[in-house]
Amino acid sequence: MPQLNPSPWFFIMLSSWLTFSLIIQPKVLAFLSTNPPSSKTPTISDTSPWTWPWT
User: Where does it localize (predicted)?
Assistant: First the structure.
């Protein structure tokens, strides 16, 4: 069964993870966020019950 032979697939998996973690991931993490989180406290709006016309 060729699926049980890990020799070609292990090297492909290892090289792809090394490529991702050493090259691609730092480039992706270096991007600036277009919507950074703000430290403002959320405003709480006053909610009043709806007056239904049929009650």
Answer: Mitochondrion membrane
